[in-house]
């Protein structure tokens, strides 16, 4: 594992393709792990709710993986053959983990109430291992792959990669991404992100998106209310 944490962001003017979304994924993973651990196996409604939340979380993780494969890794390998091999290998392992987690979740749903605690614990433990693996994988991308991208792509090209990713995400997928990314961001990062999106998007589209992310009554610059909802 690459344990380097000595980042020097001031030395690079390029955009970090991973920073914001990985902060959000770490938050989402942590919240999902806590929700699984706190769920009462004897409460049918609570178990159904947490399994639904897990299914949605895995869908989000899969979407992120596909975005990276299609929009980043392909371009890296064209310019630096083999440059994304390590990340691609991790992604293949993630895909296998998603299948196993869904199978374990199905086992929880099918278990009689007297066996549900055992099944839920297996799911919780397996998801904890996935989180550990995903945290390590994201660190590798941030500390190995992103420096490689910064070395071989111009700032304009990297901005283009980010725009390509964002523009390819359907609104119904973008909303959960933005919710956990904004929830994980600092206050200043949150303000900068929302202000930038407002300037770049048609007013109606911006309004619809943030009505879904926060709630219909939220208004731009009502940062305290956004933090109350997201954090």
What topology emerges from the helices and strands here?
Layout: H1 19-38, H2 44-79, H3 85-110, H4 113-152, H5 155-167, H6 171-184, H7 187-200, H8 203-213, H9 223-230
Helix pairs in contact: 1-2, 1-4, 1-6, 2-3, 2-5, 3-4, 6-8
What does the model show?
The chain is mainly alpha-helical and about 230 residues long. About 80% of the residues lie in helices and about 0% in strands. It contains nine helices and no strands. The chain has helices at about 20-40, 45-80, 85-110, 115-150, 155-165, 170-185, 185-200, 205-215, 225-230. The model has no long low-confidence stretch (mean pLDDT about 90).
From the structure above, extract its key features.
mainly alpha; globular
Structure at a glance:
This protein has helices spanning 19-38, 44-79, 85-110, 113-152, 155-167, 171-184, 187-200, 203-213, 223-230. The protein has 9 helices and no strands.
């Amino acid at each position: 594992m690459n344990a380097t944490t000595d980042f020097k962001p001031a030395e690079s003017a390029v955009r970090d393709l991973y920073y914001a979304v990985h902060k959000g994924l770490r938050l989402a993973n942590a919240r999902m792990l806590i929700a699984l651990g706190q769920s009462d196996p004897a409460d049918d409604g609570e178990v159904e709710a947490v399994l639904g939340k897990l299914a949605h979380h895995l869908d989000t993780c899969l979407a992120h993986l596909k975005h990276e494969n299609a929009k980043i890794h392909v371009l890296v390998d064209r310019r630096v053959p083999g440059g994304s091999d390590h990340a691609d290998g991790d992604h293949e392992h993630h895909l296998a983990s998603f299948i196993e987690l869904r199978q374990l979740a199905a086992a929880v749903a099918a278990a009689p109430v007297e066996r549900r605690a055992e099944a839920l614990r297996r799911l919780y433990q397996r998801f904890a291992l996935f989180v550990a693996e995903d945290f390590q994988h994201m660190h590798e991308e941030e500390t190995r792959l992103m420096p490689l991208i910064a070395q071989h792509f111009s700032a304009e090209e990297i901005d283009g990669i980010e725009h390509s990713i964002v523009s390819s995400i359907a609104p119904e997928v973008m909303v959960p991404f933005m919710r956990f990314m904004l929830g994980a961001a600092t206050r200043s990062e949150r303000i900068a992100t929302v202000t930038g999106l407002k300037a770049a998007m048609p007013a109606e589209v911006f309004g619809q998106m943030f009505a879904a992310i926060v709630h219909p009554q939220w208004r731009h610059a009502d940062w305290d209310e956004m933090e109350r909802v997201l954090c």
